[in-house]
Structures are given as structure tokens and as C-alpha cells.
Design brief:
Length: about 110
């Protein structure tokens, strides 16, 4: 998956990380869903749906899910904030390190 519009995504992750520590991320064939909830307030849940049309490249054939640290994700995004493109790579399902999600930052040219 590649995205060239990093600022809105960084802004959304920044807002989520101010309220929540972790989120569940689901990669599906038509969208990415990021859901964060606070165990202290069961009724307080925020879900961000990012449709595949928002990405410059998007290819997910099977549902995949992770529990992520929003703080760690935001730190990685801040480290690459001067880049114009972010690529998200998911490991093969059969991989021995199937819990790793890789972010790569580059220029779009």
C-alpha cells in the first residue's frame, strides 16, 4: 500500500494518540479500519475508515489485523514526515514474523 497524502493521516493519528494508547487495525480488501477505545469508558470508541481509493496503490486480498501502539506509530510517522510517500508492507501470512508491519518513507518522484 502506498499513500502520498501523509499530512491528514499524521493529523488523525496524532488526535487518536492524545486520547488512546493502542488501536486495532484491520486491513481489508476495500479499506483499512483503525479502531481505538478506552477500557475506562466502554462507550467511547473511535473508528477511522480509510478507503482504498485514498491510496495511490492498494492491494490486500485477505483480512489481516494487528493491535498497535498509537504512540509508536506516530513516532514513526513523525520521523518520516518530510517524505512525500509512505509505503506500508505487511508480512506474508505464513511468515514466522507475521506480527511485523513495515513503514517505508520516500519521495514520490
Amino acid at each position: 500500500m502506498k499513500v502520498d497524502k501523509l499530512t491528514p493521516l499524521v493529523d488523525a493519528m496524532c488526535l487518536l494518540s492524545q486520547v488512546f494508547n493502542e488501536a486495532d487495525v484491520i486491513f481489508a480488501p476495500t479499506l483499512i479500519s483503525i479502531t481505538a477505545s478506552n477500557p475506562s469508558f466502554v462507550a467511547f470508541t473511535i473508528t477511522l475508515h480509510i478507503k482504498k481509493q485514498w491510496f495511490t496503490e492498494y492491494s490486500i486480498h485477505r483480512h489481516r489485523s494487528w493491535r498497535i501502539s498509537l504512540h509508536s506509530l506516530l513516532q514513526a510517522m513523525y520521523a518520516g514526515r518530510n517524505s512525500s510517500r509512505m509505503t506500508i508492507r505487511l508480512p506474508p501470512i505464513s511468515s514466522t514474523n507475521s506480527s511485523a508491519m513495515v513503514l517505508k518513507f520516500s519521495s514520490s518522484s
